[in-house]
Amino acid sequence: MSPVLANLFMHYAFDMWLTRTHPEVVFERYADDAVVHCDSEAQAREVLAGIAERMEQVGLTLHPDKTQIVYCKDANRPGRYERTMFTFLGYTFRPRPARDRKGRMFLAFLPAISPQALKKISLHVRRWRLHRWIYHTFAEIAATINPVVAGWMQYYGRFYPSALYRLLARINAYLVRWIRNKYRRYDATRAARAKLAEITSGYPRTFRHWRWVTTAY
Asked: Which CA distances in Å does 182 have to 18, 136, 156, 170, 187?
């Protein structure tokens, strides 16, 4: 019940208060994390001061490190500011290169999987130790990890999916090691890589991540 009650509390203590006192701003909140969008630094400082006062009224305090004003720098906002990135719900929002409809590069303020989330997922993949699953078939390995990998791709790949490619290629690297350990005739890395390429070409839907990455890192 605690998360439900906390969310109800924040709905009245934060959401409804902010909507009532600053109807001109847009915000998102998940649990006790929130992002408030302002049109200027002056407005941001005013709203921040109001939020700090409001939280004190309801017996809460703002996190001293996580609470900050961020300048959403992009091609239309080329100014300089102390902070130009923030992390929210596993995504890091910052200036990133992007392409317009005509293929031209420009600077955009976009989200992608955060370094913290990427590190956590990388450790998860390492703990699988896929190269040691020599008593499993390819299909059995796929059936085990596909639901997990599909979840990562669906959530973190919604924006800037290329940030996941290196991680997905690492899974393929473990599969290359699995081939080397399971079959003596593919003991050489080059031969194992060639075999993986043959499998990905013949059975491209075996692993969920092969829809995005088939090379090994």
From this structure: 60, 9, 32, 18, 9
DSSP 47-83: HHHHHHHHHHHTT----TTT-------BTTB----S-
Q: Give the three-state DSSP class for 154.
A: helix
| Coil vs helix vs strand at 126 | helix
Residue 26 β-bridge partners: 37
pLDDT digits (tens, 9 = 90+) for 168-195: 999 999 999 999 999 988 888 899 999 9
Tokens representing residue 50 in the block: 């109001």
| CA–CA gap between residue 129 and residue 191 (Å, rounded) | 21
Sign of the Cα torsion 58, 64, 66, 69 reads positive
CA–CA separation, 74 vs 23, rounded Å?
Answer: 25
**pLDDT class of 1 with cuts at 50, 70, 90:** low
Q: What are the strands of the beta sheet with 86-88, ordered from one edge?
A: 86-88, 91-99, 105-113
Mean pLDDT across the stretch 47-65? 94
From the list 206, 147, 202, 136, the residue with the least C-alpha distance to 172 is: 206
Is the pTM of the predicted complex or chain greater than 0.85?
A: yes
133-163 pLDDT per residue, tens: 999 999 999 999 999 999 999 999 999 999 9
